[in-house]
Design a protein that fits this description.
Layout lengths: L2 E5 L6 H9 L8 E4 H9 L3 H25 L5 E4 L9 H9 E7 L2 H8 L11 H18 L2 E4 L5 H11 L4
Parallel strand pairs: 1-3, 1-4, 2-3, 4-5
Helix pairs in contact: 1-7, 2-3, 3-4
Bound molecules: shikimate-3-phosphate.
């Protein structure tokens, strides 16, 4: 089976869904990788500190580098990406090279309710900017995705079922 890559806006449930997939017998042999965790480990500091000290552009550089590292890891895996992974056009090809790309789609109002003002998320501090960012990224997620899953209106169990159906797993 191909590796699975989860993309989507902050708060859309990528990491929760990735963990639920990992707990399903169909995917249990896959390795789980969270791109933000990978970055924090490599850098030895938190995402919020990286943004504060070196800015978003630096973060995007190391995010692309992390994706390349992960693409070079030959294990079959479930990869949960940070919400801004579609910000750099070159990342779309890296995501495709890793595996099947799944977009976790949810209404932006629900996303703000879940993660608005989260201190760990530097780009969720201002509602107006959050809404604008979502508007800009939505079509990027859609065009990068092989499969779209509505995580806003389905519980996790249902989302796992929808993914298995989309991948042709019974
Ligand atoms: C970001 C989302 C975050 C993290 C960073 C930037 C973004 O990940 O990568 O704060 O640009 O949307 P989550 O989507 O897991 O919150």
């Amino acid at each position: 089976m191909n590796s699975i890559v989860l993309i989507g806006f902050m708060g859309s449930g990528k990491t929760t869904l990735a963990k639920a997939l990992k707990n399903d017998p169909a995917f249990e042999t896959m390795t789980f990788i969270d791109v933000d965790d990978h970055i924090e480990k490599t850098e030895g500091r938190k995402i919020s500190d990286i943004f504060k000290a070196d800015g978003e552009s630096y973060f995007r550089d190391i995010e692309t580098k992390a994706l390349k590292d992960i693409a070079g890891d030959e294990r079959t895996k479930i990869v949960s990406c940070g919400g801004g992974v579609v910000e750099r056009a070159e990342n779309a090809d890296i995501l495709k090279a890793i595996g099947t790309v799944i977009y976790t789609d949810s209404a932006v109002t629900k996303l703000w309710d879940r993660v608005g003002n989260d201190p760990k998320r530097p780009l969720s501090r201002d509602k107006e900017a959050f809404l604008k960012l979502y508007e800009k990224r939505e079509r990027l997620y859609r065009s990068a995705a092989d499969v779209i899953i509505d995580t806003g209106n389905n519980d996790i169990k249902k989302c796992v079922g929808l993914i298995k159906e989309a991948l042709g797993i019974s």
